[in-house]
Task: structure prediction
Amino acid sequence: MEKEDRNLIEKAQQGNISAFEELVQKYDRRILSLAYQFTRNTEDAKDIYQEVLMRVYNKLNRFRFESNFYTWLYRIVVNCAINYLKRRTRHSHQSIDEINERQGWDWVTLDTGPTPETLAISTEIREKIHATIETLPLMQKVIFILRFLEDFKIKDIAQIIGRSEGTVKNQLFRSTEKMRESLASYL
Result:
């Protein structure tokens, strides 16, 4: 663990709000990015972000420096995202962002380099990947996102989700096979 993180954590554990804010600033983009990977919706990611900050603030005194802080933090993000996704499936509704994304109303400035055909194919593949991720069972989805979209090592994923490395490898293999089947026509 970085000395800077350890120092900030110790100060925040003693009630120093500015140390907590500095710690949050250091990791806030990563938290939002990971939350967005699970929800594919900016507003939902912000909701998860808020929940994560509350949990970190309330549980920081329990952090004992037995693991890396980012691993502990990412575990909280993953747990909040899983809970959020479970609640969302129970109370299923569509946000305007989701409808816009499905209708292809993505307001992103395109690079002038690739041809329209290349852009169409890459957009189609990206949509297929995200659609396939949405069909994965929850734990496979979590592991796939952490490994391929967030670039975590298997050992770190096992720590984050509280499972064995063997279980992570097994779930990763299954999700990768489903992705390979889904993208077979593009290969």
